[in-house]
Specification:
By secondary structure, the protein is an alpha/beta fold. The protein is 38% helix and 14% strand. The chain has two domains: 2-96 and 289-324, 3-Layer(aba) Sandwich (Rossmann fold), CATH 3.40.50; 99-281, 3-Layer(aba) Sandwich (Rossmann fold), CATH 3.40.50. The mean pLDDT is 97.
């Protein structure tokens, strides 16, 4: 049996249903832990979403026959991969197919926050009187400015390519240096230490996965390194940013603004962020195009079915399980 914890696009469901018995949650919401554990009992594969907590209790509730967790996301911080590996369960994710959609959104957020477009839109909707003048809602241009990319993976690179089209220079921070070809494609991008990136970039865009090491990577110390005219953009995972520290920095005019697609306690948002005009808040829409969400779900289905057939899935997270299985 294949369990799908929340409805996914029809092409993916059709693939799964053609292969065997499929249970799909009837609820259009995240399942509570007790509901989730009851749903996965006896499953051979589970197609999970980023709000599902897949831990030891989940895996024990499913039972020893469970072979695959197919997570419909690039990130898999909701899955205890070590616990799955100990039980011989393959974990998969959906990289690649959402790169362009997420990079498009990151670039959109950069434009929205630096040009103060959200402030303008809210002003129009408020029906408050306004008139054009030389200093009305002045933003900043991007040409000649520096984008600091934290995490130059696929989405970080794609965002940097888009920023180059707007005339931005690229610096990046990460555990490894990119290839010389990649740096050349990005107009001579330079790898620098994180604190140097924060102190020099006009816009800081976060593209690093959430790990114990990156949780609150952007904390009060990091925010103090940023320039008062700089902007922070996060399309990766919410807990990478300490939201309380961000609110304090924004209120104190330590940075110019922020644009967030993800949140520390998602779907809850720090109330201080809601009070600030220089913050753009988007409800986790990075991959939210019809084409991208369909491709993600189909890839997850392909992963689950490959494991059930005894084949190597397209995008395993813990391939060492396959080697010992």
């Amino acid at each position: 049996m294949i369990v799908v914890t929340r409805r996914i696009p029809e092409p993916a469901l059709e693939l799964l249903q053609a292969a065997g018995d499929v249970w799909i949650s009837p609820h259009d919401r995240p399942l509570a832990d007790d509901e989730l554990h009851a749903a996965v009992k006896g499953a051979d594969a589970v197609v999970t979403l980023l709000h599902d907590r897949v831990d030891g209790d989940f895996l024990d509730a499913a039972g020893p026959q469970l072979k695959c967790i197919a997570n419909v996301a690039v990130g898999y911080d909701n899955v205890d991969v070590a616990a799955a590996s100990e039980r011989g369960i393959v974990v998969t994710n959906t990289p690649g197919v959402l790169t362009d959609a997420t990079a498009d959104l990151a670039m959109a957020l950069i434009l929205i926050v630096t040009r103060r477009l959200a402030e303008g839109e809210r002003l129009i909707r408020s029906r408050e009187p306004w008139s054009w003048h030389m200093f009305f809602l002045l933003g900043t241009s991007l040409a000649g400015k520096t984008l600091g990319v934290v995490g130059l993976g696929a989405i970080g690179r794609a965002t940097a390519h888009r920023a180059r089209a707007f005339g931005m220079e690229i610096v990046y921070a990460g555990p490894r240096r990119a290839s010389e070809d990649t740096e050349a494609e990005l107009g001579g991008a330079r790898r620098v230490p994180l604190m140097q990136l924060l102190s020099t970039a006009d816009v800081v865009s976060l593209h690093t996965p959430l790990t114990p090491e990156t949780r609150h990577l952007i904390d009060s110390t990091a925010l103090r390194q940023m320039r008062p005219d700089a902007y922070l953009v996060n399309t990766s995972r919410g807990p990478i940013v300490d939201e309380a520290a961000l609110v304090k920095a924004l209120r104190g005019h330590k940075i110019a603004g922020a644009a967030l697609d993800v949140f520390e306690e998602e779907p809850n948002v720090h109330p201080g962020l809601l009070e600030l005009d220089n913050v753009v808040l988007i409800p986790h829409l990075g991959s939210a195009t019809i084409e991208t969400r369909t491709a993600m779900a189909v890839l997850a289905a392909d992963n689950a079915l490959a494991v059930l057939r005894g084949e190597r899935p397209p995008t395993p997270v813990n391939p060492e399980v396959l080697a010992t299985g």
